[in-house]
Amino acid sequence: MNVVVLSGGVGGARFVQGVVAAADLVTVVGNVGDDVDVLGLHVSPDLDSILYALAGLNDEERGWGRAGETWRVLESVAALNGETWFRLGDLDLGLHLVRTQGLRAGEPLSLVTRRIAEALGVGTTLVPATDDRLRTWIETVAGEFHFQEWFVSRGHRDDVDGLRFEGADTAAPAPGVLDALEQAGLILIAPSNPYVSIAPILAVGAIRDALAGRTAPCVAVSPLIAGRAVKGPADRMLARLAGGTSPRHVARCYEGLIDALVVDESDDGDLVGLGDVRPIVARTLMVDADARRRLAEAALGAVPA
Amino acid sequence: MNVVVLSGGVGGARFVQGVVAAADLVTVVGNVGDDVDVLGLHVSPDLDSILYALAGLNDEERGWGRAGETWRVLESVAALNGETWFRLGDLDLGLHLVRTQGLRAGEPLSLVTRRIAEALGVGTTLVPATDDRLRTWIETVAGEFHFQEWFVSRGHRDDVDGLRFEGADTAAPAPGVLDALEQAGLILIAPSNPYVSIAPILAVGAIRDALAGRTAPCVAVSPLIAGRAVKGPADRMLARLAGGTSPRHVARCYEGLIDALVVDESDDGDLVGLGDVRPIVARTLMVDADARRRLAEAALGAVPA
């Protein structure tokens, strides 16, 4: 069975590891709304988190970036009063240099991503949602910020009033995305932040339309455990933008797009208001490879045999 | 007294260290003909050799690049099948990233260079010969190569039949170059390769004209010792392109542009054919800071008091 996963960064990448361990033909559609230009380089944090996780190169302890990373280039940049707000490690920079060189030579992001995945020995297909420029902007009381400025520089401290996906109106799905969705036996939405990780993917009109008109079931995994985000601002955003952090508030982010929602055992007591969305209760904290695989199996098991 | 030094890379940088130790107001005009785009970054090897030497960051033993350098980024690039023929260290890359970002933002090379020099605490004025694109091409029996391809990738093994300085026809001197030459009390030409390090500077018409019409004396330092280059292909190039490796062959590279030539003691026996060019015999091997300073003093002493 073909499985398509829509995924954001670190949490999504962990889930993708589980799916790849539990299923054969997996295509991951990655968020590019948080892509950012740093030191003149095109950085795609979510695609890279997925690549590093699938290649086994990710730093499990730190939770982001590469294992055994060093920071020599940024030391040098700092001494030259250069841009250091976004922490790019040396190994990571190698990838950004190769990617940026490919993009400047006219290669689309999807092709560069494929080349890099191949070089890293990643067999799973990873496709950016779009090859076009799509950037997430965060509207807050303190003003509108590019996603990474809000997330990294401001430590996502400002309450979010809204989001804007610059370029989404005209963005086309990257080659392979629509075919994958059409041929999918199951579509999964990773336990990523619905607003900043998944919404930018769904902001590409043709992807949203394909999901709304799906023939395969679509199962989302809630990123909340007992109404709290494991990491990051998802719970605060849901509380403010959706009015709460119950499963129904998560489901509402994907209204008309999902058939089931995997929720954590701890949220078992509040399964009202889900309408047509079938709840699947599982342990969702991905503490290790086994936990990742079990969560993936719970989501994969949602398909009627 | 204002001293202007025309300089190439590593050997020139060592000489510049000596001049800065021996004189007060020094302006260095650096070669940019061997600038090269690597991994999408603008690399200016000669400017950087001078900056690193003056900042005390250069690797004395290896002879190029930075002391304490590491190579993590290139390891990562290699794993991605990226471009690794030009050895860029991690600390070095920090500078190339900052420079390239400045250039892409529209800053001229001279301004970026000044910013970097300031950040490194380099008080000496370093100006690229030109802010315009100027690239050295090497004509050989095996074909024409960009300088770095010939020098690095092919290990300068191909005999050189000629040189071409792409962009020189329209290149203007960088801001400050002509003023410095006009106000100079002495102009020095570093013991760099006359063909690949100094000629690209002189290929900028206005710089050559300023040198030809100079009021200050101009003293060149021969890069040869006993008719041999300390390092690199200068001797082979002189033998083939000038017909020999005696002081007069070096002097001929600067015909009409110099008043004196500092030659090594070992070349003392072959001082014929120098015409108006006064020979100054000195020990030219720059084994340490003292030797660099003494060589600079020999060149500085060429000025009639």
Defining key terms:
homodimer; 305 residues; 3-stranded antiparallel beta sheet; Rossmann fold; alpha/beta
Explain this structure:
The structure is a homodimer of 305-residue chains. Chain A has a domain at 2-39 and 123-139 and 166-300: Rossmann fold (3-Layer(aba) Sandwich). In chain A, 38% of the residues lie in helices and 20% in strands. Chain A is built from 12 helices and 14 strands. Chain A has a 7-stranded parallel sheet, with helices on both faces. In chain A, strands 7-6-8 form a 3-stranded antiparallel sheet. In chain A, a hairpin with a 2-residue loop joins strand 6 and strand 7. In chain A, helix 1 (10-22) crosses helix 12 (289-300) and helix 7 packs parallel to helix 9. Chain A is globular and about 55 Å long. At the A-B interface, helix 3, helix 4 and helix 5 of A face helix 3, helix 4 and helix 5 of B.
Order of helices and strands of chain A: EHEEEHHHHEEEHEHEHHEEEHHEEH
The CA-CA distance between the termini of chain A, in Å, is 11 Å
Question: What percentage of residues of chain A falls in helices of 4 or more residues?
Answer: 25-40%
Beta percentage of chain A is: 15-25%
Uncertain ranges of chain A: none
CATH superfamily of one domain in chain A: CofD-like domains
**Largest interface, C-beta closer than 8 angstroms, per-chain residues:** A-B, 30 and 30 residues
Remind me, CATH topology of one domain in chain A?
A: Rossmann fold
Overall SS class of chain A? alpha/beta
The chain-level mean pLDDT of chain A equals 96
Order of strands across the biggest sheet of chain A? 5-2-1-9-10-13-14
